[in-house]
């Protein structure tokens, strides 16, 4: 298993566009042996300490293999809606890991 954590930062006022992209992308994860483990929208009051900007959302996803993750990223249906992602997301910090 590999684990993908994403810190997602949105462009101002683009939440609805981002949600449109997520409505398409999230179900596709399962096609590639993936599972959304956690999706969090942190509130400022829940942050104890920060040396980075707080993200709009945090996603934790697991895939059985690195190849499954790569195939998800190249999915043709997902690519058809990538313009929504590009329009709404300012930046993403992606962290790959394994369970130990």
Quick gist of this model?
With 100 residues, this protein is of the alpha+beta class.
Question: In CATH terms, what is the fold-level topology?
Answer: Alpha-Beta Plaits
**Which CATH class is shown?**
Alpha Beta
Calculate the mean pLDDT score and round it.
Answer: 95
Distance N to C terminus: 10 Å
Radius of gyration: 14 Å
Low-confidence stretches: none
CATH architecture term: 2-Layer Sandwich
Largest sheet: 4 strands, antiparallel
- Shape type: globular
Order the strands across the largest sheet as they lie in space.
2-3-1-4
Task: Characterise the protein shown here.
The chain is of the alpha+beta class and 100 residues long. It has a single domain (2-97), classed as Alpha-Beta Plaits (2-Layer Sandwich). The protein has helices spanning 15-28, 66-73, 76-80, 82-88; strands at residues 2-10, 34-40, 57-63, 89-97. It has 4 helices and 4 strands, in the order E-H-E-E-H-H-H-E. The longest helix has 14 residues, at 15-28. It is 34% helix and 32% strand.
Keywords:
single chain; 100 residues; alpha+beta; Alpha-Beta Plaits; four-stranded antiparallel β-sheet; 4 helices; 4 strands; 32% strand; globular
């Amino acid at each position: 298993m590999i684990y993908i954590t994403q810190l997602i930062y949105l462009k101002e006022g683009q939440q609805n566009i981002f949600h449109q992209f997520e409505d398409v992308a999230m179900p596709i994860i399962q096609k590639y042996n993936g599972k959304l483990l956690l999706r969090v929208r942190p509130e400022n009051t829940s942050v104890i300490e920060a040396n980075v900007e707080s993200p709009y959302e945090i996603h934790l996803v697991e895939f059985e293999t690195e190849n499954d993750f790569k195939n998800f990223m190249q999915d043709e249906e997902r690519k058809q809606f990538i313009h929504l992602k590009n329009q709404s997301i300012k930046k993403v910090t992606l962290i790959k890991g394994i369970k130990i």
